[in-house]
Amino acid sequence: RTVLSDWQITSQIDVLNEDYRRFNADKIKTPAVFQSVAADVEIEFALANRDPNGNWTNGIRRVQTSNLVFADFTSPKYTSMGGDNAWSRDNYLNLWVCELDSPLLGYSTFPSASMDETDGVVIHCKAFGRIDCNSKKYYLGRTGTHEIGHWLNLIHVWGDEDCCNADDGCDDTPLQAKPTYKCQEFPFTSLSSCNNQPCNTVGDMFMNYMDYTVDSCMNLFSNDQRIRMLAAFNLYRTSLLSSQALIPPTSFSNDIGITKVLFPDELIYGDSMAPVVRIHNYGTQSISSCDIYYEKDWKNYLNTFHWTGNLASDGEVDVTLPKIADSLWNNIFCAWTKDPNGTQDEDTTNDFRTRSYVVRPATEPTENNVIVYPNPSNTQITVEFKDFESLQGSYFVYNILGQRSEEHTSELQSPYVISY
Ligand code: ZN
Ligand code: CA
Predict the structure, then answer these.
(1) Confidence band (pLDDT; 50, 70, 90) for 394?
(2) How many helices and strands (H and E) does the chain possess?
(3) Integer Cα distance of 6 and 376 in angstroms
(4) Can you state the angle between helices 6-19 and 142-151, rounded to 10 degrees?
(5) Is 291 a residue whose pLDDT tops 90?
(6) Is 147 a catalytic residue?
(7) Which ligand has the nearest atom to the CA of 149?
(8) Are 108 and 147 in contact (CB under 8 A)?
């Protein structure tokens, strides 16, 4: 049976805070034509520290169920149906995570004047968080990003109808005929699913969180989506602003944690780095030491640093960790604290943080370490990189007259065949 670790759950919160603040490392993949409408939605997420009865909580409830899977999206929300009753929607965003018998990865209610205890988001456990996910395609937590978009009144970018007339209510997301499932190069050869009609001459925004592409393909909300979400928030969800859920009713004596990964940030260069994390003393007692474990990504070798200093209650300090080797392209940095003052941490849910980042070679590729053949060529060339395995970014193909092809954006694995 599936049991999600606290850290897998924490990693989902990290994804939301990157995607809704546009701190996501893969924002560099947003096509140039959409960079100007890509938005910081300015909403942040955190696990609750106070439950509806005023007691301390880590914001996570694990409930045993006799349901092997849930066949609908309502039963997870009721204890009487094998699920777990909601906490008041006035003070919490409820996320139910469970095995689902559905082709969908998740489901969300929309905000309205008549919301009840079913308000919230259901997510398939295989697509929750960005560490230890079982899904091969939905392993970066974007199902959560997408569903919470619905919870804030966004509809799908294709307007939920199989045509180019249906709109999603956002002017800066081009009209799109249908959902996109496969990650493709932007723009499509045919430019848009609306066959390049005047309604869409730019291309489909299939990398929007509100399309159906795989997690590694998604990287933006648009500015109009942001406006739509904030409008819905201000109309229907303002009670959350006075929620006490983030005010812990009690403190522990020995409780250290990480509030933020300061480095790596989105894009770094070279084959090694010295990470920087901000540690916070959440407990009542001063802390003079702790261990910090860290990884360039979740699956790799464990690095440890023994921190010593003097951190008063509620104090925080930025710690630079010893250098570690890096690997190119997409990574999830992970760090966690352990054993403040040499004793057990009394609240481990705040110990762990993840950060997405992209590594590029210290030396950017030059003509000298790229081989292109055949040369001259007709409609197809092969590109090989001598000193690196892949190249991320955009490229043009020039012909002998110096005429340039359309811009292409994708990750190239060497050798790579370009048709033009
Ligand atoms: Zn959806
Ligand atoms: Ca802690």
Answers:
(1) low
(2) 4, 18
(3) 57
(4) 60
(5) yes
(6) yes
(7) 1
(8) yes
- Backbone phi, psi, residue 224, to 5°: -70, -30
156 C-alpha vs ligand 1 centroid, how far in Å? 6
Q: What is the pLDDT of residues 121-130, one digit of tens each?
A: 999 999 999 9
Ligand nearest to the CA of 160: 1
Instruction: Provide the terminal-to-terminal Cα distance of the chain, rounded to the nearest Å.
Output: 49
CA of 338 to the centre of ligand 2 (A): 8
Residue 172, both tokens: 């800066």
Residue 79 and residue 69: Cα distance in Å, rounded? 15
Looking at the predicted structure, is the pLDDT value of residue 368 above 60? Answer: no
Catalytic option among 117, 147, 346, 407? 147
Distance 59 CA to ligand 2 centre (A): 14
Facing residues of 276 across strands? 263, 320
Return d(Cα 211, Cα 170) in angstroms, integer.
14
Which ligand has the minimum distance to the alpha carbon of residue 351? Answer: 2
DSSP 20-66: TTT--GGGGGS-HHHHTTB----------SB-TTS-B--S------S
